[in-house]
From TrEMBL:
<dbReference type="Pfam" id="PF11917">
    <property type="entry name" value="DUF3435"/>
</dbReference>
<dbReference type="InterPro" id="IPR021842">
    <property type="entry name" value="DUF3435"/>
</dbReference>
<protein>
    <submittedName>
        <fullName>Uncharacterized protein</fullName>
    </submittedName>
</protein>
Amino acid sequence: MGHASITTFLKHYLSRRITVDTQAVERQRQRHALLWDIKKRWEFEQPVRDVERQLAGLETKDNPELVHDVMLPAQGELADSVLSKPGTTIEEEMDRRNRAICAVTLYCGIEEGGMKPIQIGGQSRNAAPPVKSQLEYEEEALEAAKVLVYKEKRPKVCFL
């Protein structure tokens, strides 16, 4: 193509009709920018508002009954017990904790302490190796240095 000449541009591009509504495109860009700005502000400001409402003792806007309609009974019991408000006395708190443990056990289907570690060579896999003291580490380093000095090949000629 002869791009060096203006006639190519005039023949191919100038005669075309622009069918895009440029104002609609601009409105779409502005709408997208506004939604993005609202989303970013929501992400940063809403958690602060929620914490302030909780500290003030106000109820949250979330409706837990709507969530329970789509959950299985075990899931609903788990959500209720884990997300329940703490008790005012130690007995209420212990009861709440025990209900949460039972709900987790019911939902997961595994009893606490039911699995035993596999024994390998008389030790369990979870057993930690014995801890060495700083003195033992220093003695090992000294022995390694001695072995290195005695086994290292040294030059026979002195360089002056």
